[in-house]
Specification:
four-stranded antiparallel sheet, 2 domains
């Protein structure tokens, strides 16, 4: 009987340690990421405008590479965002630059090949 009681207590202690580890790990590492928010797609008479916010939650100042691929041109911009700050990116698209009716966006942290954000926007220009 004493042996079962020791095994039960040891199991509960191990379970408690694992539970504390999981809770501590999820709360401390959950904020260390970048994200895109407030995307806006605006159609004007002769252009499309895409606006988005990049939020830096990396825990340090970070450089980002923003790439737009339109089928007609490639646009790339490097931006530096301080920790906890928001950068608003605005890009204008004109009919002569969008060949396939869609534009692709990728946003990477500088030095990382894998983007943390990828989007495709389908836009159409009315022929007048």
């Amino acid at each position: 009987m004493l042996k079962l009681r020791i095994i039960l207590i040891a199991s509960l202690v191990i379970l408690g340690v694992l539970l504390v580890f999981v809770l501590f790990r999820s709360t401390t590492s959950g904020e260390k990421f970048s994200m895109v928010s407030r995307e806006s797609v605006i159609q004007e008479e002769d252009e499309w405008i895409i606006q988005l916010d990049i939020i830096n939650r990396e825990g340090e100042d970070t450089n980002y590479i923003i790439n737009w691929f339109t089928g007609g041109e490639t646009y790339s911009e490097k931006v530096s965002i301080k920790d906890g700050q928001v950068f608003t990116h605005i890009h204008h698209f004109h009919p002569e630059t969008v060949k396939e009716g869609k534009v692709h966006l990728t946003i990477c942290r500088e030095g990382e090949p894998t983007p943390f954000e990828q989007s495709t926007y389908y836009i159409r220009f009315d022929k007048r």
